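Hi support team,

I've been running sequence recovery on a batch of backbones for a student project. Most finish fine, but this one hangs at about 90% for roughly twenty minutes before it completes. I'm not sure whether the input is malformed or the queue is just slow. I've pasted the structure tokens below so you can try to reproduce it. Let me know if you need the job ID as well.

Thanks,
M.K.
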């Protein structure tokens, strides 16, 4: 088994997304109470509330009916697409769990992989915390894409080393248990590993490709939000002072 096989799935969402999404997020974007806010220095500078009223620096901006309709559409799209980033990260963790299940089900000793699962669960919690604050509000971090390809990637790669070590340890523990019980001879061992390797390779390729497709589609949606914001800024010039996206 490739030692980085399980860990590779966990990295797919962040690395593929970061490399293919040329959008900058200059300030944190919060989605809370049915509205969205752009923060600067810990304070909301631009707010579109649940009634689609627009506030900039605490002052309400008077909008025409046409402007109000445009703000409404934009706010809905932001609230649909941005949280999908967190969902994508969690899906990577779910895929890793599925791969681990394939490995564990190939052996009789399922408990041998408990530590690996605990590490994957912990990574899932970390991924969640990247996008949700202590109040449970979704937060798109500033410079999120460059962070994914920098600090976040380094952090996850370090965690992957632990996952990989525990994965291999789990395999050998399960294998030792089966050999001790006389359930395997050398020929059966070779056959088991060959079959497992093939199944994991197929699963890895399929799931990684699925993740990349979803990441690229979501990136396209966020690029669309950036273009939508440009048009909105032409209709409501005050929005240029506190941009959500830059492209």
């Amino acid at each position: 088994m490739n030692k980085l096989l399980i860990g590779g799935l966990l990295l797919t969402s962040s690395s593929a997304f970061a490399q293919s999404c040329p959008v900058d997020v200059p300030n944190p974007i919060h989605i809370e109470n049915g509205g969205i806010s752009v923060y600067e220095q810990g304070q909301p500078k631009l707010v579109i509330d649940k009634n689609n009223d627009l506030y900039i620096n605490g002052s309400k901006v008077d909008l025409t009916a046409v402007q109000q309709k445009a703000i409404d559409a934009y706010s809905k799209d932001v609230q649909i697409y941005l949280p999908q980033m967190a969902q994508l990260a969690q899906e990577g963790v779910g895929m890793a769990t599925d791969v681990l299940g394939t490995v564990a089900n190939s052996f009789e000793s399922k408990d041998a992989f408990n530590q690996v699962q605990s590490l994957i669960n912990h990574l899932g919690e970390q991924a969640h915390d990247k996008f949700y604050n202590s109040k449970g509000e979704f937060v798109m971090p500033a410079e999120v894409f460059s962070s994914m390809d920098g600090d976040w990637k380094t952090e996850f790669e370090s965690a992957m080393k632990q996952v990989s070590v525990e994965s291999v340890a789990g395999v050998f523990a399960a294998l030792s248990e089966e050999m001790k019980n006389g359930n395997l001879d050398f020929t059966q061992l070779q056959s088991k590993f060959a079959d497992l390797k093939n199944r994991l390779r197929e699963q890895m390729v399929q799931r990684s490709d699925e993740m990349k497709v979803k990441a690229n589609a979501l990136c396209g949606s966020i690029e669309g939000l950036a273009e939508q914001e440009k048009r909105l800024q032409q209709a409501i010039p005050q929005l240029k002072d506190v941009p959500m996206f830059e492209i």
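--
Follow-up from support: It reproduced on our side and the slowdown came from queue contention, not your input. The chain has six helices and six strands. No action needed from you.
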